[in-house]
Amino acid sequence: MRLSVKTKAGYAVAGIGDAASYTFIGTYLLFFLTTVVGMDPVMAGTVSAIGAFWDTLWSPVMGFISDRSYTRWGRRIPFIFVAAFPLAAANCFLFMTVDAGETFRFVYYTAMVIIFWTAFCAFFNPYLALGAEVTDDYHERTSLRGFTSIMNMVGMMVGMVLPTVIVDALCNVGASIGCAWQTTGAIIGLISFVSLMVTVFTLKTKEKGFKAAPRKKGKRYLITGIKMMIKEYKEIIMLKPLQKLIFVALVFLCANTIIASDRIYFLTYNLEFSPMQITIVLSATMLMSMAITPAVIRLSRRSDKRSTFIGLMFFSSLCVFAAKFFGIDSMAEMLVLVFVFAWGNTVYWQLMPSMIYDVCEVDELYSGKRREGAISSLLSLSEAFSGAVSMQVMGFILGYVGFDGETATQGESALSWIESLLTSVPGALMAVSALLMLLYPVTKEKFDEIMKALEKRRSGVKLDRSDYPIKK
Description:
By secondary structure, this protein is mainly α. It contains 17 helices and no strands. The protein has helices at residues 5-12, 14-37, 41-67, 77-94, 102-134, 138-160, 162-172, 177-203, 219-237, 240-270, 275-302, 305-326, 331-367, 372-400, 412-420, 424-437, 444-458.
């Protein structure tokens, strides 16, 4: 069944807040801590990694809870509504400069980053799972994610491009650098808040005849809940298609995090671009991805999601890797790199969530359960874990090669590694992610067979071995 444009757009709008906050933190937090706050790169990387590791722990909990939170507004919407408030506040206070000792600053920014990721996870996991509930059609899921990807690109422009414009404008009218960054964080937080609220009030529908289940409290019920959660995730992790997607996601997201975090260093120190030139590059990054999205949708409809992912990711990875040897010394060459990376970046964010949704039907076929929240949370967990590892590794590398955020120029070793972290390192990781996708078994043909088997079961027909098209 085809979804209305209103439904697709209503779901997709929250993608602005998702991408704005995620991109803002991923692009600027390490840079802010090392160059504005003046923290040691290793310590700044540790702060970022702690927050991401916390998200790794919290994601499965949120997925489990949202699957079991039946309310008159559905399972997911209340979480999006509540999380919007602390998410907006955390964007602001995480980018506040603290004039104190190194230990106090480490504690403060660690606390703020934990609050940010707690709020982000409380919103993002239910939001991602909600997409699997909106439609179970193979191609409509791709279309739904297409709408969301466009909104994600808008959000990425907000989180990536707007900060440089705001900070530069505020500093030009006499604001301190610290005040400029905190104001920027507040603006990003407000935009994220509004976008989440639009989705909440567009999609919220009261369930007729809803009766709240009695709440069970006490230590015994808490322990029982934890045991149930562990048992459920053990079952889900055994799904072979999900395992394959998680490995693909982990590898690509390491590449994505490294490029996102390193890009601002490369533009500032290697190319010595002005704020306006940096804005042009970052804007081009988003505009190119937006332009590519329709092509990715068309290609996936002509073949299937897996083939499209493999082909475009290989193309993108080879070009990004080769940039290290050809060199990037001008605006034109930087824009070429932006263009070739956009293909790999777009195909991942466009198709990976849609493929995760398809695994929900595989799970239902074998378990008879609908666990969109738990399954989707593992993709969020992958983002958090890969982000934590990548940020920590970047912090160590920058510290090891002698990067100094308090000086305008860097040594040859630091500049060389900053270039490698933008080109050969992520290029190699992207190629590995494409190779791993070859192992993913759910093609369009297999998905159709899965849906036929589910229809038989739902109509009361007992299934036999021939109704299970792929290995569990």
